[in-house]
Design brief:
Elements lengths: L2 H7 L2 H33 L13 H28 L2 H33 L7 H22 L3 H14 L3 H11 L19 H33 L4 H5 L1
Length: about 240
């Protein structure tokens, strides 16, 4: 993102209008792709020769796990812009990401536990990947709690943003945990672009689900971020005109 774009959409009225135009497109396309991916993953993709139908939880677990990290990276990026440029829009976006990020991280953990029970014989182990993902959930909750506990808006934005920025260090730990440590969690499958460890018939619904989740996330942020901007700018002339 260029500095010109940051300055342009850093204007609350410009961001609001852009978000309101973008949101229905992202929502509609995101839901459509999630439906297609769900049908493909549950009914079209073949059984796994080792795990049978139990592997199909990946069509919900993997997109949730990817999005939990992507959302946190977006929250950290928005928090950085907010601190550097004192941007109301950036702080609003960061704040709107946190609840959704916490929810999608919880979904990643729950679906992982549902998969782990039949595969590992237990729903939870203090595995490096699981533990670092759980820490990610705590970081989201910490951001939300800290922001809510400080009454002054500017102080709350700065304090919570520091938590978001410092927590970014956990993202490479989550991603590389299966490489750095001896872990029960399987290694990456689709991130090996040259030779993914999953056949095409199983891969395409997973990719569709990831894109669908990402678009739905964009729609949520457009709606949540624009609502937060309206609340913060409620005394502004442009809000009163709306």
């Amino acid at each position: 993102m260029s500095l010109k774009a940051i300055y342009k959409y850093g204007s609350p009225p410009n961001f609001y209008r852009f978000a309101m135009k973008l949101e229905p497109w992202c929502f509609s396309l995101g839901v459509f792709l999630i439906v297609i991916g769900t049908i493909g993953g549950l009914f079209i993709a073949p059984k796994d020769y080792q795990m049978g139908d139990a592997y199909r939880i990946i069509y919900f677990h993997v997109p949730s796990a990817y999005l939990s990290m992507s959302a946190y990276a977006a929250m950290g990026f928005a928090s950085t812009i907010g601190i550097v440029w004192r941007s109301t829009v950036a702080f609003s976006v960061a704040k709107s990401i946190a609840p959704f990020g916490a929810l999608i991280t919880a979904l990643a953990l729950i679906t992982g536990m549902l998969w782990g029970k039949p595969m590992w014989g237990t729903a939870w182990v203090w595995d490096a990947r699981l533990t670092s993902e759980f820490i990610l959930l705590l970081l989201y909750l910490g951001y939300i709690t800290l922001h809510a506990s400080i009454k002054e808006q500017k102080r709350a934005d700065r304090a919570a943003s520091l938590v978001a920025i410092l927590g970014i260090i956990n993202l490479p730990i989550i991603h590389y945990s299966v490489v750095w440590w001896n872990t029960l969690h399987q290694a990456s499958t689709i991130s090996k672009i040259d030779a993914p460890s999953i056949v095409g018939e199983m891969l395409w619904p997973l990719l569709v689900m990831i894109i669908g989740y990402s678009l739905f996330f964009s729609a949520v942020i457009c709606r949540g971020g624009s609502a937060e901007v309206l609340m913060r700018e409620k005394r502004s002339k442009w809000v009163k005109e709306i």
